[in-house]
Amino acid sequence: MKNRIPRQQKYGMVIGLIFGPLSLLAQHTGIMEATQVPRSGVMLVLVLLLMSVFTAALFLACKVWSMLDKSRKETEDDNFQELSRYLANMDSVQIGKLLTITGSQPTKNTAGNGNTKTVLLFVSVVIGSLLPSASLFAQSGANQKGLLSETGIIITITLILIPILAAIGLMIVKLSRMLQNQRKQQDLEKAERLAAYLSTLPAEEVNTVLQARKKALDFTLNHTELSGQQAPADEKGLISNINTRDILPFVAPKQKAVKRPHIDPALAKLILWYFGSAAFWLLFGTSIGEYLGIKFVAPDADHISWLSFGRLRPVHTNAVFWGWASLGMLGLGYYIVPMVSNTALASIKKGWQALHLVNAAVILGTLSLMAGINNGGGEYREYTWPVMLLFGLALILTLINFWQTISKRQMKEIYISNWYIVSALMFALTITVVAYVPSWQNGLGETIIQGYYMHQGVGMWFMLFTLGIVYYMLPQQLNKPIYSYSLGILAFWTQILFYTLIGTHHFVFSSIPWWLQTVAIVGSVGMVIPVVAGTTNFIMTFRGAWHKIAGSYTLPFFLVGIIFYCTGSLQGTAEAFRSTNLLWHFTDFTVAHSHLTMYGIICFFLWAGMYAVIPRLTGKEAPQVTVGAHFWLALIGLLFYTIPLMIGSTLRGQMWIEGKPFIETVVHMAPYWLWRAIGGSLMWLSHIFFVYNFYRMVSTRETIDVKEVALEKLQQKIIA
Amino acid sequence: MEFFNNHTRLFRTAFLFFAGLTLLVAILPAINNQQNNQPLPSAEPVTEEAMKGKLVFISNGCVACHTQQVRNVDMDKVWGSRPSIAADYAGIKRTDTWRNTATLMGTERTGSDLTDIGNRQPSSDWNLVHLFNPRIVVKESIMPAYPWLFTIQKETTAKDVVVNVPKEYLNGKEGKVVATEEARYLLAYLQSLKQAKLPDGSPTPDFLYKRKQAASGGNTQAPDGNLLYTANCQSCHQANGEGLPGAFPSLKGSPVVNGNNLQLYVDIIMNGYDARPEFGVMPAVGTNAGLSAAEVTAIINHERNSWGNKAEKVTEADVKKLLDFVKLKTAK
Asked: How many domains is chain A partitioned into structurally?
């Protein structure tokens, strides 16, 4: 233990090695203008390289320390004790062998430990030379800031580091091989010593002891001690649905949905029609979106007025908003609200009326937008008021329906899902009225209302309703209660308080009042509270049930939804600041953000809910392969869509700040738009799988229950 | 708690909470803004044609990519001479019974900002060609083409507005491209988009977050003529300097560019040009963009030494003198 470096000192070195270069970087970026993103990117690579060099060095050092320890122990340990331990640990076969051996010649101990020492010396020299040079480099870097921020020099250093890194990697491989050989050598020597020791033992005494030991070791159970001699029987009928075929599991086996005792077939039909319409609008809306993405790359794809970009963009957004997401949510709402109220839905008829109204609104809205009839410039407010009126009526009908269902609930409490769902309906109606009543829409009034409307539409309709769905579906799928009911309540009230304020953060630096912009920014920061509360609640509900993800095909969707709920929402907060607005406002960063949230959160939660609910209604499940394909294509597609778009638009914002000609920034975006189109294609493909899965879950194609049919045949025989 | 178990009270409370906040952050500020702002006295009244053009603009969803707001940040300086203020939008009222007010401020700037496009690019020829297919004049553009705003006719009358479209953009069709009424309205609308002057004596709002000059060693870098050309001149005169036959003159081998009449050259850059009937009118690019003497010098020297042009470089001092002179001339 003498020449061992004290632990604290060791950690100190490690921390110094890791953070030394980082602090150097921090200094540099502080001095550099914010306009030098590519350069700081190079710096980052450099730091990563340096860090990996240090990690390698550290790895070597650790290896050597452990070697030192081991070899020291081996020489210091008492040979006799260890050898007798080997004897005691012999198994039956080995003892048998030993017993048959009568006598053998002891061999001599030859090899020494010189080899180890040379290796150690070499390594310590290498490390010794590496550490000072690294610190030297850091020092010179700190002194010559100007020089180090030169791209050429950074590239040169990087190029030099690459072979060094490769050499160190090679050395690690060689060294570990050497260590292995060394260990093998030592073990061989030990074996020889053991053999010598064994041959010196007095034969007869030992033989009796060993024979007794062998007998003891040879003892085995007859495997019927606990079960007895009788054949197994499941007298209580506890085991069912056994998989008897042993085949290679090409697709991870997932648990089947549990059949619910009773759901009114009329309600089931209604819900399925909601889902079916939603699925149609998803496929339609995202086909349009896919085509729009292509138009960024191929602007002359067509020259038809009905298909021009400006007209199709709102067709896409409105179809997926009011058609897909809204109908999907409402369908799940029709399942959840009666379920948690422990009563039947107040009126199935109203449910159908609402469905028809929404579908009519989206069909009419789509056609009128393509014909060039829209409400004006406001995003998500492109449908004219007669069209939106249909949607509003559907909301009113649904609200009445849910309210009446809840008022005849069979328990005292109102489960929190219903708080969220009913509030979402009330708030969506409110914002629609505020957005379409003309009394406060002249001049900037329109803009203030627009900011309010577009963000409340997202946060108070989609997000609130979906959270209601998650508060029911997630605990149900995990088969355990929500982690904290009160945290859900906190999230509910804080969401209303903060979310309502944030609308105008879409118009930061515009001519709307400065104080209103500031309120919106403050509100956006406040949103951290409900988001963190919600995320914590969901993640903690998973606690102790993480293993269930592997066996379920709905839980992965929930998990992705939760992750994006946290990251996507907090990204929204980050985007609201004035400084980030400078960089990201007006760029495609907003588009990436809205897809991370509307797709990553809302769509994934809706799919999770649908995959959970539909099998309970129809008793049929989608093939696991295609559910998996849906999940992975959607997730990977979303990442391909958003990440390049975020990178590209950050750089575009930088170019704007630098005052580059506008058209140059358009050219700059081209590759990122291409990646967006590729990601979008994957997402679109996943929707085809989803629609197919939906078809498989509801198709009337009869599955023959062999047992049932056989019984029927027998009965017929008896009758005959 | 009883409150949480009474659905009427619970939902009513949530609703009133939301409605109250809505009133505070949306409805009341909106009403307040609508009542307390008036259009600037200097704002030109919107003509009937421009109004019809705005409807074309709205129905084609142009706002999806084009903003109409100059933010009060330094980077938006390129889009207007001052930040937009509430009064700029105060005159915009409800479009009609069916359609809401359209301030068209926009939230995406995939294409350029149009707040001041009537000053920045007033050329009818350029705008119509650009609408027919943007890639005729801006190769890299991804803006949609709007051929349905035009007809292709064999015979044209004097009344027709003929657009000079290169053959390869006609998809094999024969004839002349004539702007329809809709295209002319849209053009009128675009040309009407000008920032109104603030009344004398009222303070101009500041552009915030000024860009720091790279202050390495104290010497300010000379502006990049190539970049300035791309930003201010290229959409008409093209990257190869050859312009567009019948619409925008070539700068390659141009006597003005290569000649010695520096005063005329500076005058054209600052105040525009309309001396040659076979080409479109050139707007006052330099004045609109607020180009400095150094920037004008950079552009001139770039043009004099590109695309095969080889003329002597001019100095900033010469240009500065002429700039003052030209400004004086226009003031008169």
From this structure: 2
Q: For residue A204, which phi and psi values (nearest 5 degrees)?
A: -70, -50
A86 pLDDT higher than 90: no
Question: Is residue B80 within 8 angstroms of chain A, CB to CB?
Answer: no
Per-residue pLDDT, B328: 72
C-alpha to C-alpha distance for B190 and B205, rounded to whole angstroms: 25
The dihedral over CA atoms of A690, A693, A695, A701, expressed in degrees to the nearest 10, equals 170
What residue type is A66 in one-letter code?
S
- Within-domain flag for A236: no
Q: Would A497 be classed as within a structural domain?
A: yes
Q: Between chains, do B73 and A509 touch, taking CB under 8 Å as contact? A: yes
One domain for residues A211 and A277: no
Contact between chains at B100 and A309 (C-beta distance less than 8 A): no
pLDDT surpassing 50 at residue A24: no
Task: Find residues 629-688 of chain A whose CB sits inside 8 Å of chain B.
Answer: 656-664, 666-667, 673
Q: Show Cβ contacts of residue A274 under 8 Å, excluding neighbours closer than 6 positions.
A: A327, A328, A330, A331, A334, A355
**Average of pLDDT values for B142-151?**
95
For helices A485-499 and A514-526, angle between their N-to-C axes, nearest 10 degrees: 170
Tens-place pLDDT, residues A145-155: 556 666 666 77
> Is the domain of A153 the same as that of A269?
no
Is A386–B98 a contact, with Cβ atoms under 8 angstroms apart? Answer: yes
Q: Which residues of A touch B212 (CB under 8 A)?
A: 33
Could you tell me if A347 and A446 lie in one domain?
yes
What mean pLDDT comes out for the span B106-123?
92
pLDDT (tens digit per residue) in A218-270? 888 888 888 788 887 888 888 776 666 666 767 777 777 666 667 899 999 99
Q: Is B242 helix (H, G, I), strand (E, B) or coil?
A: coil
Q: Are A384 and B98 in contact (CB under 8 A)?
A: yes
CATH number at residue A523: 1.20.210.10
pLDDT tens for A106-144 read: 444 444 444 555 555 555 545 544 444 444 444 443 444
Residue A196 confidence (pLDDT): 82
Provide ipTM, 2 decimals: 0.87
- Concatenated DSSP letters of A369-419: HHHT--S-S-TT--S-HHHHHHHHHHHHHHHHHHHHHHHT-SSSS--HHHH
**Which ranges in A144-202 belong to alpha helices (H)?**
145-148, 151-200
* CA–CA min distance A680, chain B (Å): 18
pLDDT, mean over chain A? 84
Residues A193 and A318 in one domain: no
Cα–Cα distance, B259 to A351 (Å, whole number): 79
Q: Tell me the two tokens of residue A679.
A: 């990601």
Q: What residue numbers bound the domain in which A619 lies? A: 265-706
Do A449 and B105 lie within an 8 Å CB cutoff? no
Question: Quick one: tokens of A470?
Answer: 């998650």
Give yes or no for A434 touching B (CB within 8 A): yes
Q: Does A122 map to a domain?
A: yes
Task: Tell whether A595 and A482 lie within a shared domain.
Answer: yes
Q: What is the mean pLDDT of the segment spanning A56-79?
A: 72
pLDDT higher than threshold 70 for residue B168:
yes
Query: Residues A292, A440: one domain?
Result: yes
Q: Which residues of B touch A418 (CB under 8 A)?
A: 7
- The answer on A332 and A214 residing in a single domain is no
From residue A335, alpha-carbon distances to A271, A476, A617, B50 in Å are 7, 13, 10, 52
Q: Residues A710-716: what's their mean pLDDT?
A: 85
Q: 3-state SS string over A418-455?
A: HHHHHHHHHHHHHHHHHHHCHHHCCCHHHHHHHHHHHH
**B112 → chain A, closest CA residue:** A662
Please report the domains of chain B, with CATH numbers, ordered by start residue.
48-94+102-192 (1.10.760.10), 225-331 (1.10.760.10)
The predicted model gives A86-105 an average pLDDT of 73
Q: Is residue A535 part of a domain?
A: yes
Q: Cα–Cα distance between A315 and A387 in angstroms, integer?
A: 13
